[in-house]
Q: What sequence folds into this?
């Protein structure tokens, strides 16, 4: 998994050797850029985690220092999403698109990418713009899936 | 939701059915409501659909509730209130009762205003807990 903090899109080797070697580009730089753009564009979003279909975290960005074990968080979030889908199937209603876990002042939204290749976990606290989140989350899911397919 | 709390709960199952009926009467946006016991088995339900897998649905709803609490605990967030499962044209709200003896599952149309449900849900959860007191665990 990449770092919690947004990774730099390119890291230049030591100054003396920079003319000899090409810049080292992080494999997940476009993915991190998409997550960082979303994090900074939607008020109230604190953390975004991309988890694979098994619940393992693939990438993440956070406004603050991480305060959680993201492996456990993403595993449980994907479990909640899968169980939510199963509830819908067993109630004979169509496929579930998001699962939102809600407390007094916080929300955690879990949403799969279009083909189910990965899941997005968005943690929000305090004042959040849910309308903007619902508008932009599908676009982020599309972008994440495109990036993951290129790996 | 004072009416929910005023129901005479002298008969466990009947009282629970009455609680669910009163909830649906008070909140027309809700299309159905189910109570899942501590082990995920259905205790009472008021659902319009007939071809549903109720036992599987409540078992999975209990799992959703447990996983949601685990997400919150791992993020060091306290006080999970509800989990909302959204579909294209529907919503399902899952909420544990205060004692965690049961979970309530409410179904509603996607376009429905959920503010009435948010107001009524705490009263329903307390009423379900009160109805379950003295009953053997499901």
A:
């Amino acid at each position: 998994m990449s770092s919690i903090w947004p990774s730099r899109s390119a890291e230049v080797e030591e100054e003396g050797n920079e003319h000899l070697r090409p810049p080292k580009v992080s494999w997940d730089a476009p993915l991190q850029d998409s997550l960082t753009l979303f994090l900074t564009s939607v008020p109230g979003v604190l953390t975004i985690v991309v988890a694979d279909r098994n619940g393992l975290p693939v990438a993440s960005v956070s406004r603050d220092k991480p305060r959680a074990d993201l492996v456990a968080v993403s595993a449980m979030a994907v479990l909640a999403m899968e169980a939510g889908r199963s509830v819908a199937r067993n109630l004979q209603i169509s496929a579930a698109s998001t699962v939102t876990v809600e407390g007094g002042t916080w929300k955690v939204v879990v949403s799969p990418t279009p083909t189910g290749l990965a899941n997005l976990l968005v943690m929000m606290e305090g004042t959040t713009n849910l309308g903007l989140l619902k508008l932009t989350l599908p676009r982020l899911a599309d972008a994440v899936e495109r990036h993951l397919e290129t790996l | 939701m004072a009416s929910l709390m005023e129901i005479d709960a002298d008969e466990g199952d009947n009282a629970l059915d009455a609680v669910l009926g009163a909830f649906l009467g008070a909140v027309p946006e809700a299309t159905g409501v189910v109570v899942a016991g501590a082990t995920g088995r259905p205790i009472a339900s008021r659902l319009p659909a007939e071809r549903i897998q109720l036992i599987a649905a409540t078992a999975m709803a209990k799992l959703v509730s447990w996983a949601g609490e685990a997400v919150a605990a791992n993020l060091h967030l306290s006080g999970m209130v509800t989990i909302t499962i959204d579909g294209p044209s529907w919503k399902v709200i899952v909420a544990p009762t205060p004692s965690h003896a049961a979970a309530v599952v409410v179904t509603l149309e996607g376009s429905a205003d959920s503010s009435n449900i948010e107001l009524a849900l705490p009263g329903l959860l307390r009423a379900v807990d009160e109805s379950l007191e003295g009953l053997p665990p499901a």
